[in-house]
Amino acid sequence: MKNLYKNLFSYVQERKKYAYLSITLAAISVFVFIAFYWVFWIVVKSLLVDANYSLALDYSFKLVILMIFRGVLIMSGTMASHYVGFRLERNLRTAGLKGLMNASFSFFDKNSSGEIRRIIDDNAANTHQAVAHLIPNTVVAILTPILMFTLAFKIDYRQGILLVITSIIGILQYKGMFKRMDLMEKSMNSLQEMSAATVEYIRGMQVIKIFGVTVKYYKSMLDSIMNYKNYTYKYSQSCRIPNITFQVLFNLFYAFCVPFAIFYISKGENTLLILAKVIYFAVFSSLLLSSFSLVMSVATDTFKAKDAVKKLEDALIDMNDNKINYGSLENIENYNIEFKNVSFGYEKEMVLEHFNLLLPENKTYALVGPSGGGKSTIAKLISGFYKINDGEILIGGRNLKEYSEKVLLENIAFVFQNSKLFKTSIYENVRIGKPNASYEEVMRALEAARCSEILDKFKERENTIIGSKGVYLSGGEVQRIAIARAILKDAKIIILDEASAAADPENEYELQKAFSVLMKNKTVIMIAHRLSSIKNVDEVLYIEDGHIVERGSDSELMKLEGKYKALQDLYNKANEWRVA
């Protein structure tokens, strides 16, 4: 447990003093709690044995004061621990988000969005629970039984011995529960897997509804639910007998008190004093049961907290292992792009091996070829968001690693097939491309991207919030706004990843007009499935199995009558197809 808190406090050094304050207040509250029951014994003894009603009344007021004081201590200690807990949760989420910002795209390829959300969000919340509640609860769980046994022996050592024996037997029973913590771990893991699967299920709800797929037939979701059910049931079953035995033993203590009373009264001891002790210990033992239940709860929560911290730190380590390391170079002399003996793969599968490529600046290149051949991989590697296995990628004759993050982001722009717009205004969506852009610059970019008619559709024009009040855009309109973003950025290297593949004829025309503005005097790499859109590029590269099979202009490759021509013929034949 010490290592757990040492680890957690490393993320919240500025609030650690409040954790120590919480520990101190919790400890004082336990002593006040024991003092309360010592005073309670005096009240019981005064009433039943001494018949001293004025003393009993006097101490009754002290009981009220002690209980109020304890309440203030508990509230203050809990506030202090929550103060630490919320800051810890914030810092862990911040660390997770910073890790995501610096992680390479490989991390996102390996982890679904639901899983990433679960790792950062859920585990950060669990660590908050560890600090906010475990700090005071741990102190209470450790001190309370010790002081209660001390008080029990002070009042009557014989009852104290009986209480200790009952407690030891009960704890030995509870020990059996902790032998099956592996089931608890599996239950927790399956819960998190179910949470991640649920997020993915909801995100795919449109497809699910279209095809009428229920949870029963959505395998990953169903499997996660069944795993959680099975592991949780097994863990609950493993806890059943120890937990029941523990509860029964402490409840039997009441029954043990009766023969105790009869035996000692028959031996001539003070009847009223023995009855007072029986009544007192009947109340006292139930409180000790609650105290031991808290001990078990603390042990369980500690295990959960350790698991949460481990998962979160493993993710941070994974992010760091995939971290993109940038240099300090702030200027790019030219925009020639070169791959030198580059090898790269996703997980264990290699996509490029000893790959070489030179793309002189200020030209337009089209990458074509079968799916899975490596076109998108080549484009992604140019961005610098992936760590390559071997070789080097150069821009302007210098390795990508030598450039600062700022200079790469400023000089490379992407337009994807499924561009992402955020639920904010059209204006803000475009300004993401250049956060310090003026209003006039943003509006010029929107006009250059042929977005004027899109703005005319809405009363609030560029201030229209996407996704609110029924405001939704078509795929082609989304692409034009994404192009406006890229135009505003004015990057020297443009990568178009099948950017017009899903556009209708009208939007295709507008997109081509927007592309012509975007691509002017730039180094452009296009990944194209619509071969009609690449007739005028400077060079076409036919990529297959991670290799350049053919390279040249459209007319040159058509004369070769090789794979590019075969692809063009297939494309033309597909365009001629009509529904009968």
Features:
2 domains; 11% strand; elongated; 10 strands; four-stranded antiparallel β-sheet; Rossmann fold; alpha/beta; ABC transporter transmembrane region fold; 580 residues; six-stranded mixed β-sheet
Low-pLDDT segments, ≥5 res: none
Q: What's the mean pLDDT score? A: 78
Number of domains: 2
- The class by helix and strand makeup works out as alpha/beta
* Count, helices: 19
Beta-strand fraction estimate = 5-15%
From the alpha-carbon coordinates, what is the Rg to the nearest angstrom? Answer: 35 Å
- Our measurement of the CA-to-CA distance between the termini, rounded to an integer number of angstroms, reads 73 Å
Q: What general form does the structure show?
A: elongated
The CATH first-level class of the largest domain comes to Mainly Alpha
Helix content: 55-70%
Strand order of the largest sheet: 6-7-8-3-9-10
CATH architecture classification name of the largest domain: Up-down Bundle
Superfamily (CATH H level) name of the largest domain:
ABC transporter type 1, transmembrane domain
Tell me the series of helices and strands, N- to C-terminal.
HHHHHHHHHHEEEHEEHEHHHHEHEEEHH
Question: Got a strand count?
Answer: 10
Largest sheet: 6 strands, mixed
Q: Which fold name corresponds to the CATH topology of the largest domain?
A: ABC transporter transmembrane region fold
